[in-house]
Design brief:
Blueprint (H helix, E strand, L loop, with lengths): L30 H5 L11 E15 L2 E14 L9 E7 L7 E11 L2 E4 L5 E5 L4 E7 L8 E10 L8 E2 L6 E11 L2 E8 L6 E13 L3 E15 L17 E10 L5 E3 L4 H10 L10 H5 L4 H4 L4 H15 L1 E2 L11 H7 L1 E2 L1 H14 L3 E7 L19 E8 L2 E5 L19 E5 L6 E4 L7 E10 L5 E10 H11 L4 H9 L5 E9 L8 E9 L7 E4 L21 E2 L4 E11 L3 E5 L4 E5 L4 E11 L2 E10 L3 E2 L4 H16 L2 E5 L1
Length: about 650
């Protein structure tokens, strides 16, 4: 949540400016809009925003400067699945002194049969917590083809809450615009996000629009932004938080100037932020408690000579000691001593405890502020502390850095949970200047499947499978089986096949996090119906069956988080009373710019044996939209080849 500051109170009246003429007349719709059956640019849409606008101005009300934004939206409902877009929720913030308000709510449902108006008793208010409440209402008399109009005004006394405008949502929009008249006393940074082009992007100065009698007059910046024919935003496979890519405009207050010459800066340099963090009670204050943690280090850990081995011992000590309470708190409620004594803590408490303990062991470690994948990317243009929601540790040994997070008990040393693999983090040195550091995952995540089978004269196939999971593959697999018995795992494996039985199933390194997780399975595939022709898929349950990239085009990067490899080494020998009837053909394809490679090499050793070697490599974690078509085709070819069967028949 953006940090909220108290507003400078003006005990004077304000001469409000007159807004430009509106772009709509509330309550009026066209027959063409009412007759619309679907949206030709997206015939799958359940609803469509025909027009929406926001208009922000600054005014005085009860001796307080108010940011007033008038919202209007006109929505076409095509079918029952679109009815949910006739429910509206307005979030309002308050602190102990001031509160936001929503006023002049008007809404109409338009049908061929007439109009249905929103009444006051249909508007409900719900308290979410001590700082937030929601005002909700749902329109009545909805039918396929209805049009819903909504208009209301939000008044905010918080000058930080010029929140901007979100052009893109989960339904398409024909036209969306935002206008603002911002007095020169307020200086905001603005950031335009997304991949859609603005139809309107104007800025001009309007003279003498902000007048405070007895104090002064200033001009205003008159802004206008608009986009037309906006597609619905759809979350896609392998992407970070959707807010990273939605088309929107954001504002952040950097400076406030008043007529008497007073000047308050809010967005400052990283230099200033670094100094503030040194004295912050939740970050700087907690990072100094190394003596407390030194008392809990065992003599065995202190005696380790190797810095790397000592760091590992400290990491696993903290990881095993704490249980994470699933909270991300880093800027409040961080109390490392209490958390350590209670053996439970939030992200800040656990990872700052880790940093303190590493420091107390004489190791070079730094705190890193990051934003998780679901939180969006942190802004690099200027310090926006509220962009960060997580902390990790950066350990430096022999010119090599290790990123650490002790909240997840499945993480081996040097790995971060998947939620943390998101761009860059800001390293807070506390002695020198802070700096950006790229967050990169180790590049050894791999699944190696080895299968050696024999088709016997009686038609029964016997053999052994060996699955070796490395890196993030091993982490994911350990989490899958953590709360399952061996019998559960065996049954789950057998259920993927119709006539396969696991004769023996063993694990290696089930709890040794830094080693590959190995599963060895002796299998028997029965010949229940004495069939003369057998069809084998050498990929077993590791076959990729559907393409994760189904969209015709993709505007957003594909973010796998880390590089990936899947190797198959398959071999089968057949008895003399059988023969290979048909075999898939070899295939090889590479992605541009060394992005990846797929090989499928099948070799007939002799009349009774074939070997198949297959390798899938994703050689980089992020692919941009210009590479999407290549990636889509790459997976299409993989799926096609993995679906091809080895056919064996009796002579």
């Amino acid at each position: 949540m953006k940090k909220i500051a108290a507003l400078f109170i003006i005990l004077l009246s304000f001469q409000a400016y007159t807004q430009d003429q509106e772009d709509y007349t509330f309550g009026e719709i066209s027959q063409e809009e009412l007759n619309l059956k679907n949206y030709k640019l997206d015939t799958t849409a359940n609803a469509l925003v025909l027009f929406e606008t926001g208009n922000t101005s600054f005014k005085i009300k009860k001796n307080t400067i108010i940011i007033s934004t008038k919202f209007y939206k006109k929505i076409k409902i095509f079918n029952k699945e679109g009815y949910k877009h006739a429910t509206f929720s307005v979030s309002l913030y308050n602190n102990k002194k001031n509160s936001e308000k929503v006023k002049k709510i008007k809404a109409i449902t338009h049908n061929h049969s007439g109009k249905n108006y929103l009444f006051k008793d249909q508007i409900f208010e719900e308290r979410i917590n001590e700082n937030w409440k929601e005002v909700k209402f749902t329109m009545s008399n909805l039918n396929d083809g209805s049009i819903v109009e909504v208009e209301y005004i939000i008044e905010s006394p918080f000058k930080f809450n010029l929140t901007g405008w979100e052009f893109q949502s989960d339904i398409p929009k024909k036209y969306s615009q935002y206008k603002a008249l911002i007095p020169g006393n307020y200086i905001y940074n603005r950031k335009l996000s997304g991949y859609l082009k603005l139809k309107i992007n104007t800025s001009e100065i309007k003279k003498n629009c902000f007048n405070v009698p007895g104090q002064g007059t200033s001009g205003c910046e008159k802004l206008a932004y608009a986009i037309e024919n906006i597609p619905a935003f759809k979350a896609e496979e392998y992407m970070t938080d959707g807010d990273n890519f939605k088309s929107k405009i954001n504002f952040e207050l950097t400076e406030f100037k008043w007529f008497d010459g007073t000047n308050k800066k809010y967005t400052t340099t990283w230099n200033t932020v670094d100094k503030e963090f040194r004295t912050d009670k939740n970050i700087g204050g907690q990072i100094k408690k190394t003596k407390f943690f030194k008392n809990y280090l065992s003599t065995e850990i202190i005696a380790i000579n190797s810095e790397l081995e000592k760091a590992k011992a400290v990491y696993y000590f903290i990881q095993n000691h704490f249980n994470w309470n699933k909270k991300y708190s880093i800027f409040k409620n961080v109390k490392v001593k209490n958390a350590y004594e209670n053996k439970i803590g939030n992200v800040g408490e656990i990872n700052i405890s880790l940093i303190n303990t590493l420091k107390s062991a004489g190791l070079n470690v730094e705190l890193v502020l990051i934003s998780t994948r679901e939180n969006g990317f942190a802004t690099k243009l200027y310090p926006v502390i509220s962009d960060f929601n997580y902390v990790i540790a950066k350990l430096n040994i022999n010119n090599k850095s290790y990123l650490l997070d002790a909240t997840d008990k499945f993480m081996p040393f040097g790995y971060l949970p998947f939620r943390c693999l998101n761009g860059s983090g800001r390293v807070m040195d506390f002695k020198n200047e802070s700096y950006w550091f790229d967050i990169k995952a180790p590049s050894n995540s791999k699944l190696q499947l080895t299968a050696n089978l024999t088709l016997n004269e009686n038609g029964i196939i016997t053999g052994k499978l060996r699955k070796e999971n490395f890196g993030y593959n091993a982490i994911a697999r350990r989490k899958e089986i953590a709360n399952k018995t061996d019998d559960d795992v065996i049954l789950e494996f057998e259920n993927n096949f119709t006539n396969l039985e696991a004769i023996n199933y063993t694990f290696e390194n089930k709890t040794e996090k830094e080693k590959p997780l190995i599963e060895t399975i002796e299998v028997e595939i029965d010949d229940l119906d004495s069939v003369t022709t057998k069809y084998l898929n050498p990929f077993f349950e590791e076959q990729l069956k559907s393409n994760p990239f189904k969209q015709e085009n993709r505007q957003y990067p594909v973010d796998f988080g880390y590089t990936k490899t899947f190797n198959l080494n398959f071999s089968i020998k057949i008895a003399g009373n059988y023969k290979f009837k048909s075999l898939p053909k070899s295939k090889s394809i590479s992605l541009p710019k060394n992005g990846g490679r797929f090989t499928y090499l099948i070799e007939k050793v002799n009349e009774n044996q074939i070997n198949l070697l297959s390798k899938i490599i994703i050689n980089k974690p992020i692919f941009f939209n210009s590479e999407y078509e290549f990636l889509k085709e790459y997976f299409k070819i993989i799926i096609n080849k993995q679906a091809q069967l080895i056919t064996i028949t009796k002579k």
